Amino acid sequence: MNRIDLAGRVVLVTGGGRGLGEAYCRELAHRGAAVVVHDNGSGIGGRGHDPAPAQDVAAAIVDDGGRAVACVSDSSTDAGGREAIMLALREYGRLDAVVANAGIIHDDSFEDWPTDRFEALLRHHLMAAFHVVRPAFAVMKDTGYGRIVFVSSAAGVFGQPRLAGYAAAKTGMLGLMNVVALEGAEFGITANAIMPMAATRMARALMADAADTADGREFLDSLRVDQVAPVVAYLASESCSRTQLVLSAFRGRVAALQIGVTRGWISETGMVSAEDVASHLDEITDTHDLLVPGSIFDEMASLS
Ligand SMILES: NC(=O)c1ccc[n+]([C@@H]2O[C@H](COP(=O)([O-])OP(=O)(O)OC[C@H]3O[C@@H](n4cnc5c(N)ncnc54)[C@H](O)[C@@H]3O)[C@@H](O)[C@H]2O)c1
């Protein structure tokens, strides 16, 4: 297998100033990419602004002999997203890949979730991805090449109590990925996603109770960012020609999510009653021979 080389490529990583995003920036730079380290340095809940995280990561990459520049705008706004894309073009003259990684966290029991916090979660994950990927897509369409990596989460795809806003935003990333992948295909643009786990400030805040026991601390320490960053480097590289892949990565395991539909039960008359659903539920939910459609049209075609 040839080394996956990103020399000459320019990659934008949102939320690149801390945690997993920092690890992505370093891995990409190590493989030769020029990196736009984009991070507004917000608090864990999305409040505040600090240029230091993005600037420090960019400076460390440059000190190591790599190429990097910091962008400290808020990617959850139209202007903030465009600023990051323009910086990539101004500094390096091109943009090859985007890792939509920025995010915040808040947890609450569902009935107590404050509306403003729910909206903030959607803004700092989903809108933050939309506002960088949309202008990046236009640049990539012109050059006929692009790699987009959305950062989703098992907490949304499979569910995690108390994370209503986070789960909704993270699963929304997959809808965005599907459409970008389908519209990007004819222009050489792939869109994939990752569901990481690593003991960053976000994960440690959510698993604060785990840190009370030796076993819990050991488990947290076993979730390392360097077990995830190479997976993102692959998805952001030319070597990855697949699109609509969703890879789960933690503790050294890399696996693929399958979003499929069962073969189901088919009414002979075309009419369906509520009683039919109840009496055929085993057949409806039988996961044997799962169909994994690449688009809504694939699912429709499966019945024609
Ligand atoms: N750590 C995990 O186990 C885990 C699991 C699944 C998904 N994720 C996702 O991975 C991503 C990185 O998480 P992390 O654990 O490294 O968290 P982190 O808090 O260490 O880093 C997130 C970074 O995003 C930045 N950010 C937030 N909103 C921004 C905005 N609007 N514009 C620019 N920057 C912004 C923050 O300043 C911060 O530096 C997040 O999207 C998170 O949801 C993490």
UniProtKB/TrEMBL annotation:
Superkingdom of the source species: Bacteria
Protein name per UniProt: Short-chain dehydrogenase
Organism in which the protein naturally occurs: Mycolicibacterium duvalii
Domain Ketoreductase: 9-200
Keywords in alphabetical order: Oxidoreductase
Pfam families per the UniProt record, alphabetical: adh_short
Gene Ontology molecular function, alphabetical: oxidoreductase activity
Claim: Oxidoreductase is one of the keywords in the record: yes
Calcium keyword on record: no
